[in-house]
Amino acid sequence: MNRHRINSVVSGVVGTVFIWVAVLMVRSIGGATAPMFNFALLIGFLATVGLWLSWAVMAFQQSGAEQWHEKAKRSPAEDDARLSRMLLQMLDEDERRTLKHRLRDDLRADGQAISLDELVARGEQAGRDS
Q: The pTM is what?
């Protein structure tokens, strides 16, 4: 990512150099007093400002996309699983049994192919592994 930013800065500098070389060429061809030189100075300035503003906007958008990508990398499922384990530990045996029956009824109503017992066994196995 950093290499991309360096490349974009270098291309901006090269673009700026070309703009001002063109302005100097207008001066050498037309002279310093020609109205064309004033016009070339104005166009050179506006082109330079536009070039660097577009670079800044692109860099800002890219950093926003990188931040979003970093946030997307962090899986909320891991946090949810940890929170679920903690909440289940807080329940007593009767409350857990009631929750299991309620979840089993919900899964039957949904028509899921996997049984709640399998899910519980997987969760317990994952808890032992970590």
A: 0.46
